[in-house]
Each structure stands twice: as C-alpha cells, then as structure tokens.
Amino acid sequence: MKILVTDKDGKEHELDAVTDWSVMEVIRDSGLEMLAQCGGSCACATCHVYVDPEWIERIPEPTEEEIGMLDGAFNVNDQSRLSCQLFCSEATNGLKVKIAPGSY
Amino acid sequence: MTEAAQQTDVVIIGAGPTGLFAVFELGLNDMKCHLIDILDRPGGQCAELYPEKPIYDIPAIPMCTGQELTDRLMEQIKPFHPVFHLSQMAEKIEKQEDGSWNVTTDRGTLINCKVVVVAAGGGSFVPKKPPIKGIEEYEGISLFYAVKKMEQFRGKSVVIAGGGDSALDWVVNLQPIVKELTLIHRRDDFRAAPDTVAKMRALVAEKKMTLKIAQITSLKGQGSQIEALKLKDETGEYEYPCDTLLAFYGLTMKLGPVATFGMEFQNEVIPVNTATFETSVPGVFAIGDINTYPGKMKLILSGFHEAALMSKKAFEYVHPGRKYRFQYTTSSSDLQNKLGVEEKQEQAA
C-alpha cells in the first residue's frame, strides 16, 4: 500500500502507507518536511495538502470541522484537505497529494 | 528601557501544562516561580489549539478538555502563588557574576532568578504569515497581524483578511474610523461569534463596508506601502486597491529567541540529561515538548515526570547546602502545610 507525496520542492516520493494511519502521520514518519503542529487533532491547519484531482472525488468528504479549520490555511482550493483527516486504506492505495505552502 | 529586576527562585518560560505543573513540583521543594508566556492566558497549546478538545491520557483523569486541564493545574498550583508575565516573550537570559540569571522579556520585564526552566513546547505562538514572497517588506508599515493602536488606521483604506473572531472583531471596531473597509474571506461562512458576524452582515447591508469572498495571492506596492492586493476567486484573479492589510489567519508556533539562549539544540529541540533535565548550560533546564532524549515521547505526562526530576536538581541551585528531603504528599505534614491542606479541610468542615 503506497501513497505518493509531492514535497515543497516539487519532488514526488512514494511512501509506504499503513492501514488506519492518517496521511499526515505517514508523511511525518517518512521525515518529509511538514509542520503538522497540533499533532493530528484538526486544530491548526499546518498539514494542508492538495489532493490530486483524480483522487479528490474518491475520498470521504471533509467534515464541517475540517472545512472550518482550512480557514487558517493559505491558497485553499477545491483540492485542499488537512492530511490529518485523511486515512489510509486499500481504497487509498496510490493516493496522490502535494504538501501546500504554509504547511512546511 | 530596563526596570528594576523582580526577584524569584525560578523563571519558567512557557505556561503550558508542563510549565504549570513545574510550579507545583518546585513549590513543594520551597522554590518560588515566575512564568513568562506569549499568550494572554495560561495553558499553552491546551489553551490555544484545543481548549474544547477532549484529552484522554492524563493519569487518573479519564477525560478532560484542554481548558479543564489548564483550570485544574491552576487550582493545583494556587498555594504556591506563581507570578505570571503574560502576552510577552522571553527574549534573553544573561548569567550574572553571582551565578544567578537575568531574564528579560520583549516588554522590558526583568527578572533575576537562580534557575531558568524552558518549558516552551513548540515555541512561541506568533501570527501565521501568508506564504507570499517579499511579504516582510510591508510588515509594520502597511501590513499588520495585530492591532496595537486603532488610531493608526484612521482614514485608511483597510482590508481585513480572515474569518475568525480576531478578523470580525476588528471589522466591527475599525469600521467607524477607517475610510474604506473590506473583509476578505475564502468562503461565505465565518467561525467568529455569531453576534459579531451578524454585525458585519448589517454593515455590509448598510453599504458601510464590503465583503469579498476571495483569497489573497500576492501584494503590490511601492517600497513598504501596499497599493493593491491580488485576489483570486471563482471568476479569476484581479487587483483590489487598498493601503492597509490586516491579516488574521490564526497563530503558529515558532522557536523564537529561546534558540539564542546558548544551550545546545538538535533539530529545534534541546537535548537534556535525563537524570536532571538540565541542558548543556548548567542552571538552565528544559522540560516538555521542547526537550529531547533517547526514547522521548511528546506527551503531557512526560512533561509532568520531567518537571519532578528537574525540581530535585533545581533545588541544589536555589538552596545550596540544604539537604534535599524526599517526601510524599500523603504523609508529610510539611508538604501538606505548603499546600494549605489544613485550611482547606477547615473550610470544608
């Protein structure tokens, strides 16, 4: 099970995902630069990622809480998500995300 | 400007849960504390990031919120009368000839102490800055992240960015004195208090201000003076003239001046001796999320444990020549006196 993560320099990394881990946790565990300051409690908006357009419809929709917390992120668009709220499973095998400015 | 130094035994930098509990452990060992914190209230991340979120891993408290944990710690340390210096940042520490330390804040507060404890967590909470290249040029001249003097905005064409309480409160407060006011937010939904949102909507309806659903992508100006913002919305990108921008995107943690205090750092955290939680600088300790050692886990309960061990070593600096007495609060009348246990029992009776 893999996810593909583009870092702040535009380089893509293939990371080993673990079932039920958040995408933020997988990114942090890999050592890629990401602030993720609140540690995954949907309280800081510093794990902001852009989900690849092909994937955005295939993952569960954000909660009201996540949408609200995105107010603290920058350059938010239709692909914006907080990676602490995206969870890995077989269904997300191959998920592509890009770490957003303001989160590194 | 320096004022006369205030005297205490220990200065704790950071009033989060670890810093607060350190007051308790130090207090039991006869050490008085002052705490410095950049936030306007104690609690650190518990107060700023998750006051309403439940915490489940505090020993013997199956569930409490960040705010409840803070409130309980404040209650627990009350007998030791800690002194708080809030809304300010510890800026430097200087060793004195007599071995004591002078701690100075960015507000000019000067405290002389025998021991410094850094309990600064992830660093100081500072305003989030939009990731726009060259944004620093405008800061303090035409771009602000806080309002210190309302008068400086009189007669200006002001844009306020954000959707939380800070943004909306300043919309309501500044509208009567500015020339033009625009609120920019990425969506037509606001997290601020409903009452303030209603006031903003009324101002918009009365045409006393403008609401734009858009995001700022860049700034345009001469020198340090903003002349226009580049905004992006569903229809595309366009320029929006203004002379002042107030950006309220919440707070973020930055290490700040503590990095210059002289102790060794490793990847923005401070290595410590795990017997004492002393840093590479004798008399300066680091506890909680800001320290590192083999096996470190960034948990509140780790910070509590570290505070207890730190206190034992700090005692040697604060009370040289005095023998450290290890006691239990359950049985020691000495500790119970310090905690005011008898008074509390009398009050209860």
What does this structure look like?
The complex is a heterodimer of chains A (104) and B (349). Chain A is 17% helix and 21% strand. Chain A contains three helices and five strands, in the order ββαβααββ. The mean pLDDT of chain A is 96. With 349 residues, chain B is of the alpha/beta class. Chain B has two domains: 6-126 and 252-348, 3-Layer(bba) Sandwich (FAD/NAD(P)-binding domain), CATH 3.50.50; 129-249, FAD/NAD(P)-binding domain. Helices cover 24% and strands 28% of the residues of chain B. Chain B has eight helices and 23 strands. Chain B has helices spanning 17-28, 45-48, 66-77, 165-174, 194-205, 300-318, 333-338, 341-348, and strands spanning 6-7, 10-13, 33-37, 54-55, 64-65, 83-86, 90-95, 101-105, 110-113, 115-118, 124-127, 143-144, 157-161, 180-185, 210-213, 215-222, 225-233, 236-241, 244-247, 251-254, 270-271, 284-286, 291-292. In chain B, strand 4 and strand 5 (64-65) form a beta hairpin. In chain B, helix 1 runs parallel beside helix 6 (300-318). Chain B is elongated and about 70 Å long. The N and C termini of chain B lie far apart (51 Å). Chain A binds chain B through residues 35, 37-39, 41, 43-46, 67-68, 70-76, 101-102, and chain B through 45, 49-50, 53, 122, 128, 130-131, 162-164, 185-187, 189, 191, 215, 217, 249-250, 252-253, 298.
